[in-house]
Write a structure and sequence with these properties.
Blueprint (H helix, E strand, L loop, with lengths): L2 E8 L4 E5 L3 E14 L2 E13 H10 L5 E14 L5 E14 L21 H5 L5
Parallel strand pairs: 4-6
Antiparallel strand pairs: 1-3, 1-5, 2-3, 3-4, 5-6
């Protein structure tokens, strides 16, 4: 597996959705602006998806504008839509996400148990709606 890590700010608040048999996930966007001294170059927006207990924790802990660090696997999915046209979605499937402590201060209030669905993430992402 190729793991990548991105940093930036949440471009919008996380959006929750369900799929399959009451499975839970969230979509979010991480914005990162290249900063070269006083000149800001360009902003990239990276779509991110998270599943299970990670998704639930994201909903309660993060909101638009929060500085985050996201680690996960890059995913590219292709499919034909109702008009028989090919479409593609690229996104980072999050394995870990948290506040970037370089830019924010937090205090942990508890710990979560390991996500029992973590092994199914690769299989479940293929069942998601576009």
């Amino acid at each position: 597996m190729n793991t990548i890590t991105i940093t930036g700010n949440l471009g919008r608040s996380p959006v929750q959705f369900t799929y399959g048999e009451n499975k839970f996930a969230v979509r979010l966007v991480v914005a990162n602006t290249e900063d070269r001294g006083e000149k800001r170059e360009r902003t990239s927006f990276v779509p991110v998806i998270a599943f299970g207990s990670l998704a639930q924790n994201i909903l309660t802990a993060l909101e638009k504008g929060d500085p985050v660090v996201v680690t996960g696997e890059w995913s590219v999915r292709s499919w034909k839509n109702d008009k028989d046209e090919w479409q593609e979605r690229q996104q980072l499937v999050a394995q870990d996400i948290g506040l970037n402590l370089r830019f924010a201060r937090v205090k942990a209030t508890g710990s979560a148990e390991a996500d029992p669905d973590a092994e199914q993430v690769a299989v479940l992402q293929d069942a998601l709606p576009a």
